[in-house]
Amino acid sequence: MDLPPTLLATTTFVLHKVGVGSRRTIGARLADETGLTLWEFAVLATLADFGAAAQREVGGRLGLDPSDMVRLMDGLMDEGLAERDRDPADRRRYRISLTPAGRDVLDRALAVIERVERETLAPLTTEERKQLHELVAKVFTN
Question: For 103-141, b where at least 16 C-beta lie within 10 A, e where not — what string?
Fold first, then answer.
């Protein structure tokens, strides 16, 4: 790709291009190696990090529309990667949680993502990768 110097000098444009390329590669590799989509991975990661929660809470953390969340959860439950049960704190509510099979596929997905990141960031040293992550996280959380 032969981008104009003006675009290459625009940090947010370059970040976007790196992000889009990485997202495509991660999405393709996740599908091939684990059968997951990026959003399914995101739901499993959220359940692993925060524990069992109401479906609405998980969707809210990820900024997902409730109808999209229903579709994602139906697929994850059909695959045995997540399960729905009554919330012991409020029997009127259901919560979703990660199954052991879900944890296994999440671990495999994390290994896929680690490989893609290592390949994508190969021009950087370990210290530069750490610094890049810190800087991008700072911009993201601000």
Answer: eebbeebeebbeebeeebbeeeeeeebeeeeeeeeeeee
Amino acid sitting at position 20: V
Q: Is the CB of residue 100 less than 8 Å from the CB of residue 61?
A: no
Could you report the per-residue pLDDT of 58-81, keeping only the tens digit for each?
999 999 998 899 999 999 999 999
Place of tokens 């104009």: 4
Would you call 69 exposed, middle or buried from its count of C-beta atoms within 10 A (0-12, 13-18, 19+)?
Answer: buried
Give yes or no for a contact between 58 and 47, defined as CB atoms under 8 angstroms apart. yes
pLDDT of 1 over the 80 cut: no
Q: How far apart are CA 84 and CA 93, in angstroms?
A: 10
Residue 123 phi/psi, 5-degree rounding, is -65, -15
